[in-house]
Amino acid sequence: MPGYLTKAPVLTSRLTQAGRGWTTPSPALTGLALIATALLAGCGKSGNEKGQRPPPQVGFVVVAPTAVPEPVTLGGRTVAFETSEVRPQVTGLIRRRLFTEGGYVRAGQPLFEIDPSLYRAAVNQAQANLASAQASASAAVAKADRYRPLAAMEAVAKQDYTDVAAQARVARASVAQNRAALETARINLRFTTVPAPISGRIGRALVTAGGLAGATQETPLAIIQRTDPMYVDMQQSAADLTAMRRKLRQGGYGAGSTQVTLKLEDGSDYPLPGTVQFSEVTVNQDTGTVTLRARFPNPQNLLLPGMFVNAVFTQAIDSNAFLVPQQAVQHDFDGSAYVMLVGPGNKAIRRKINATRAMGTNWVVTSGLARGDKVIVQGLNGLKQNAPIVPVPANAPQDPTRAPRGKPGAGGASASGAAKQGA
Predict the structure, then answer these.
(1) Is the pLDDT of residue 123 over 70?
(2) Residue 358 contacts by C-beta under 8 Å, 6 or more apart in sequence?
(3) Quick check: helix, strand or coil at residue 183?
């Protein structure tokens, strides 16, 4: 532009001198004069009038408190709903195993057979003893019946009748004893077939055929576990549990749901939800934790006893939290969170908040906001404290001439608008 300013007077002078000698100026010279004049006019207007950007247009959302669940994730182990050790109740050699290892067995189903020879003989002996006692009792009772009228007529001594009557009662007691012995022998004979105490999946046989089984042995014959439904024992810090109970007492928090979901060891979600059954009242002195137990259906036997899982459930509901879109929350160098709000006079103001966690596409804000605050979610790039703005509801059509400074494409849009105004 300075080059044009220095050369334009010379060019004009030459055109004037040329005009003195010519009646009609040259068309080429006339065109150059017009171009020089236009350039001078344009440079003068640019230097005198400085174009200013209009306030940027921003989109905002109006926030209000809402009930937000406060989920808790606890590690736990799966535990069989029922576990039973198969143990013998009599002593003897195991003759046969009557089940398929790893299969499903039902309560009362025979699992092992112990040699019954000795116990069958004991039953026969008890039956013979009972028959003998019954015969003796019959004779004693008949003798006592004959002595009763004779004693009344004093035909026999009363002491003789007393002795006979006592012998009859002893004979009847002997019958009862032998009948009980027979019943015991029959029970022991029945115990030679070892049944399943519960229904469930049975593991491998811990004693093979030919092994000696004893009523007092430490090793069980097998173990049965019922895995549908399944328990999950979770461990929660006693301090966290106490803090949660304090929040519930102080208000602002409501009781959560007892429904629980599981994440398996591979990170996948278990498809069926469970329910919290109870919480123990004793704190483990070694770990400082309290055990919570949940119950889950397990029809496909996807859960196996001893698996490590993560249980997620809502322990409380915060009724005074705010859900703010994630794009609206920014962070300082120290990691603290803040948002930009529409302030008085349509100026941007900065507000620090406490954003504890994310939920879906939103941040959960527990402090720093009030009902009715207008949180800016669009046009945040380059926005500063107390900067004038043009607020519109979020997702409203944006005016390209009000794009904020520093936004990609904003400079071009603003520059084109300024050029149109200069034109």
Answers:
(1) yes
(2) 326, 364
(3) helix
In a domain, 219, yes or no: no
Instruction: Determine the structural domain holding residue 311 and report its residue range.
Output: 69-80+227-319
**Contacts of residue 341, Cβ cutoff 8 Å, sequence gap at least 6:** 60, 348, 349, 350, 351, 373, 374, 375, 376
Radius of gyration over every alpha carbon of the chain, rounded to an integer in angstroms: 49
| Number of helical H runs and strand E runs in the chain | 6, 20
pLDDT tier for residue 247 given thresholds of 50, 70 and 90: confident
Q: Does residue 330 share a domain with residue 263?
A: no
Contact criterion met (CB below 8 Å) for 134 and 149: no
Pick the last residue of a domain from 319, 339, 365: 319
In which residue are the tokens 């003897």 written?
92
Report the b/e string of 8-42 with b at 16+ CB within 10 A.
beeeeeebeeeeeeeeeeeeeeeebbeebeeeeee
Token duo for residue 188: 């022991």
Average pLDDT over residues 348-376: 91
Sequential DSSP letters for 368-400: S--TT-EEEEES-TT--TT-B-EEEETTSPP-G
Give this prediction's pTM: 0.63
